Amino acid sequence: MDGVVTQSMRAHFAAWKDVFDAFLKGHAEMQNGPYVPFCMEDYFTYVDGVPRFEGTRRFLDSRGIALPLGAPDSLDPRTIHGLGNLKNRRFQTWLEQNNVPTYADTIDLIRAVKARGIKVGVFSASRNAERVLKSAGVLDLFDAKVDGVDAENLHLAAKPDPALLLETARRLGARPSRVIVVEDAVSGVKAGAAGGFRHVIGVDREQIGEKKHDRALRASGADIVTRDLGDVYDLCLPPVQAKENTR
User: Fold this and answer.
1) DSSP letters for 107-141
2) What domains sit in the chain, N to C, each tagged with a CATH number?
3) Which residues pair with residue 145 across a beta bridge?
4) From the CA atom positions of the chain, what is the Rg in Å?
5) How confident is the model over 135-151, as a mean pLDDT?
6) For residues 204 and 13, what is the distance between their CA atoms, to the nearest angstrom?
7) Distance CA 10, CA 142 (A)
């Protein structure tokens, strides 16, 4: 969803950056060490496409920082739950103040494949997914949706485990070998590669310097990486079958 269908990725990044940078500054002062702010590369590597608290833990691990889990509803930035909940509070505020925009190339592709009778599903690790899709006005475009609420209820493992994607395929009534996955997250591309899907298309919207994200997506198993899904119509659309001449 985020970064492929909806343009909510920047809001997620900004919310994470606010929370992590405040924590990192305080931690650096306490440890008398250098302050290295959270950056877009950190976002794509550690928190994009995974549940909030898991992303928090993965990022902190990358900085060699260990924090207690804390109470589930904590807002204490000295805990994993606290940092994750603070981030969610910032994102919820953004949602209240904005209508979520979408990527025109994705919406065009969805409508084109649906016009050919192909079902389309959407998946997201976010518990806010339905609200985001409704805000964007695109929830009804999808034949199936699997989000963070479903993942918790069904005990689905987080990406890069393919469980979330496989459940989406199941709800579409399709074998993975008949499904094309479109993902902008490294964890999601890895999940697509591990799940035995027909093709995995990586989307590199941000094009971080030196094509770092492009290379990361390819290394994680993307068959193709593109910035514009208009470039992959031929891969996603079946050929129009000519009507048989019965004369």
Assistant:
1) HHHHHHHHHTT---EEE-S-TTHHHHHHHHT-GGG
2) 9-97 (1.10.150), 104-236 (3.40.50.1000)
3) 122
4) 19
5) 96
6) 15
7) 23
Residue 214 CB partners (closer than 8 Å, separation 6+): 202, 204, 207, 225
* Length reported for the chain: 247
List pLDDT tens digits, range 21-66. 999 999 999 999 999 999 988 998 899 888 899 999 999 999 999 9
Cα-to-chain-centroid distance, residue 51: 10
Q: Are 199 and 181 in contact (CB under 8 A)?
A: yes
pTM beyond cutoff 0.85: no
CB under 8 Å to 63, separation ≥6 — which residues? 24, 36
* 88 contacts 52 by C-beta, under 8 angstroms: yes
Assign 29 to helix, strand or coil.
helix
Q: Tell me: the pLDDT tens digits for 184-197?
A: 989 999 999 999 99
For the chain, how far is it from start to end, CA to CA, in angstroms? 48
E strand or H helix at 200:
strand 199-203
Q: Residue 97 above 60 pLDDT?
A: yes
* Amino acid at the residue 45: T
Lookup result for tokens 């050929």: 239
Residue 222 has what pLDDT?
A: 97
C-alpha span between 209 and 122 (Å, rounded): 29
Cross-strand pairs, 122: 145
* Maximum separation of any 2 CA atoms in the chain, in Å: 86
